[in-house]
Amino acid sequence: MAPLLFKVEDRPPRITTVLLALQHLLAALGGIIAVPLVIGGALKLPTAEIIALVNAALIGSGVVTIIQCKGVGPVGIRLPCVMGTSFSFVGAAISVGAEHGVAGILGSALAGSLLMIVGSHFMPTIRKLFPHTVTSVVVTMIGLSLIPVAVDWAAGGRGSPQYGAVGNLAIAAFVLALVIAMVQWGKGMISASAIVIGILGGYLLCLALGLVDFTQMRNAPVLALPQPLHFGLSFPVSGIVAMAIAYLVTTVESTGTFMALGSATQTPITGNKLSRGILCDGFGSAFAALISSPPLSTFAQNVGVVSLTGVASRHVVALTGVMLLLAGLFPVLGALVVTVPQPVLGGAGLMMFAMIVSGGINMLSRIEFTQRNTLIVAVSIGCGLAVTFRPELLSRLPLFVQEVFGSGISVGSLVAVTLNLVLPGRTAEHAEEAQHDEGAQASGELA
């Protein structure tokens, strides 16, 4: 495995830290804003209400990102994690909101977060369900599931009338080539800043071609103060159940993301670390509901930034949290970042997400491919990709099944865990993993 440029506890120089934090912001901001926009649009909320949701999402993401990176007592995994609103909650949120309004969404999210908070205490036991074979599958599936997102960005955005236009693909290819050149031939900070340099180059090209739309920036307010309980809270039982299911799915996905992050940062992920990370996800979502934001979870796409740049410093990503907070307080700043055309993000995103796949393949290469392990890898990745590429596969199944199995990451993870438990011959690997986990935990306590 290649050496890291900056390790988890390293503190790069200030200007360097700002540039590196900006890369994570660019990778995450679109996804954070998209969720409240989708929910608000589906519920036909007034523009002012949608703006309130977006600003709250940015503020909540910023605050919880800082806590996840820095840690507050037993809360926070203390790794470079970016937190943001999750599409895992969109289906539940829209169904609850259609009947009970935004107050029902936020109240259900607040009550449902207790499931994640309580469940975090069982993560040392759950960690035992993720030996190296299963973890390798999960990391690979995270990358493979994100590739279609980057492809949609590169093509101009799903639903765009210009989707797949030659111009969009050419811009994405230009950014991709620029990022590759910076990583391959750049030294030190040039290589570490490859994503922001690539995006900046693509942005300047789009400016020259007149492809940057500043409408959102002109319409964005300069200052927006937090609005706790702006929509109120209500607690419909059906909504709480729907959100609880979404939290179960998110717990599986966040566990996989933490595993991928452990690989990217060369950090052993023990059960106790998972507990702190999931506890932060749960408390973060509760906090988000109180400030009028949809629920939060750990962003998988930012693992790709770490993998690509070799910058694993949690202090860098903590600054990204500060930037997200400022973007929520000063929407004009967030609107400026949103002016980056999607093909520009697609070129960089394809590289970032492919790096997660590469990390998963690297982990898979260290597996002894017995018949048992081959079955686990093949079947779980196959099932995960089936849902990723053909989500309509589940359209005729009950809503509960669609919620649980609607994500390729959760399907691949659950199938891998199930096969690992069911197929004979897991004893040796399980014992080896347990011994490794105990050793990593002991070394962490000594540190």
From TrEMBL:
Coiled coil (residue ranges): none
Superkingdom as given in the UniProt entry: Bacteria
Transmembrane segments: 50-67, 79-96, 102-122, 129-151, 163-183, 190-211, 231-249, 316-338, 344-363, 375-393, 405-423
A GO term for molecular function: xanthine transmembrane transporter activity
InterPro entries hit by this protein: NCS2, UacT-like, Xan_ur_permease
Location (main, coarse): membrane
Pfam families: Xan_ur_permease
Protein name (database record): Purine permease
Organism annotation: Cupriavidus oxalaticus
Lineage: Bacteria, Pseudomonadati, Pseudomonadota, Betaproteobacteria, Burkholderiales
